[in-house]
Amino acid sequence: MVDGAQGLAGLRFAGTWSPAAEFSKNFCRRQSGAERAVVHTQVGRSARPWSALFKRILYAAAGSLAVVLLKVIRLAKPEAMATLGGRLLRRVGPWLPEHRTGRANLAAAFPEKSPGEIEDTLRGVWFNLGQVGAEYAFLDKLWDYDPHNPGRGRIEIPPETLERARIVRDDGKPALLFTAHFGNWELCAVAIAALGIDALILYRQPNIAAIDDAIRRIRAGKMGTLVPTTSDSVPAIIKALNRGLHVGMVVDQFFGQGVDITFFGRKCKANPTLARLARRFECPIYGARIVRLPGHRFRFEATPEIVPVRDADGKIDVQGTTQKINDVIEGWVREYPEQWLWLHRRWR
User: Fold this and answer.
1) Band (20; pLDDT cuts 50, 70, 90)
2) CB atoms within 10 A of CB 29
3) Minimal CA–CA distance to 154: which of 4, 296, 39, 14?
4) In the predicted model, is pLDDT for residue 124 greater than 50?
5) Residue among 162, 160, 163, 178 at smallest CA distance from 283
6) What is the reported pLDDT for 254?
7) Cα first-last separation, the chain
8) Residue 263 phi, psi (nearest 5)
9) Confidence check: pLDDT of 56 > 80
10) Confidence at 221, pLDDT banded by 50, 70, 90
11) CA nearest 296: which of 18, 81, 125?
12) pTM of this prediction?
C-alpha cells in the first residue's frame, strides 16, 4: 500500500468553531495587541521577557476564570442555562460586528426575504448560538437516548438513521463523517460514540491550556478519540482509516487553500480534506446533523451514503465531491436557517 502521507501531502485542516475555542482565540487576539503596546513602550529587547511573563499570567488567569465558570454553570440545570444563554446572546448579539456579517450573508442567500425576516432569522441564530455555548458545559449529560424507551428523553433518532449507524458500525469498513455548524453540532460526536461507532473526531483546540484541559475532561469518553485540527493530524487520520476506524469533521467554514464551490449561489472556497481522504481510501461518506427541537430536545439525523463524483478515470473527483457535500449542507441550512452559523465570513 502506498504511504497515506504521500497520498495526502499538503493537507491542511480548517479549524472548527467552538464557544471555548472562540473565547480563547479572541482573548489571544486582544492580548497580542496588548503585548505590542507593552513592548513598544520599553527600550530594546529587555521588554520581551516581561511581555512573555505577562502573557503567561493573563493566559493562566483567563484559563482559571473559564474553568470556574464551567463549574458554576454545571451546578444549574441544562435547560435553564440554555434558555439564559440564548436570551443573553439574542440581546447582545445584534450589537456585535458579526451581526452585520450575518445580515449580509442572509440577504445574499435569501434575496426574497424582507429586512424584517432577515432580522428575525438572525435573532434565532444568536439564540441558538447562546444555547450552544451554555450547553457546552453539559456535553456529558445532554445525551439521554434510551433505545428501549426512545420517546422519553431529550434525544430522538429516526429509524433510518439508526439503520445507517448500524451499517457504519458493523460493515468493517472505514467511513468519513461530516457535519456543519448547525443546531448543536457538538452533540454529533456524542451521538456517534453513543451509537457504538469508533471514530476519530477532529476538533479545534483552544489556545489556553486550562480551557483545553477542562473541555477534554467534559468530552472524555463521550466523543471518541479527539484529535486537534493541525497539520500533525494527518498521520493520526491515516492510521485510523488504515485500521478500519472512522473519521469525523466539521466542513462548512471558509478554507483559503480549498477548492472552488458554489454555496447558496455564490462562489467560495471549501475544505477538500474529506473528499481527498475519500479519493485515497475509497471509503463511504455520510453526513450527520443535530436538529434543535422545541422544548430543549434534539433529533440526530444521518444522511444516506453520499455517492461521490468521479472523474474520467473512475477516481473520486475532489472538487465535485466537495461540492456535493456542501450541497447537502445547503439543504440543511435552507430547512432551518436560524440553526446555522451565518455569523462566519463564509464568502470572501
Assistant:
1) very low
2) 10
3) 296
4) yes
5) 178
6) 94
7) 39
8) -130, 120
9) no
10) low
11) 81
12) 0.83
Instruction: Write out the chain in H/E/C secondary structure.
Output: CCCHHHHCCCCCCCCCCCHHHHHHHHHHHHHHHHHHHHHHCCCHHHHHHHHHHHHHHHHHHHHHHHHHHHHHHCCCCHHHHHHHHHHHHHHHHHHCHHHHHHHHHHHHHCCCCCHHHHHHHHHHHHHHHHHHHHHHHHHHHHCCCCCCCCCCCCEECCHHHHHHHHHHHHCCCCCEEEECCECCCHHHHHHHHHCCCCEEEEECCCCCHHHHHHHHHHHCCCCCEEEECCCCHHHHHHHHHHCCCEEEEECCCCCCCCEEEEECCEEEEECCHHHHHHHHHCCCEEEEEEEEECCCEEEEEECCCECCCECCCCCECHHHHHHHHHHHHHHHHHHCHHHECCCCCCCC
What's the grid cell of residue 137?
458545559
Q: Taking 80 as the threshold, does the pLDDT of residue 50 lie above it?
A: no
Residue 312 in grid coordinates: 474520467
Answer whether residue 12 shows pLDDT above 50: no
Q: CA 220 to CA 45: how far, in whole Å?
A: 43
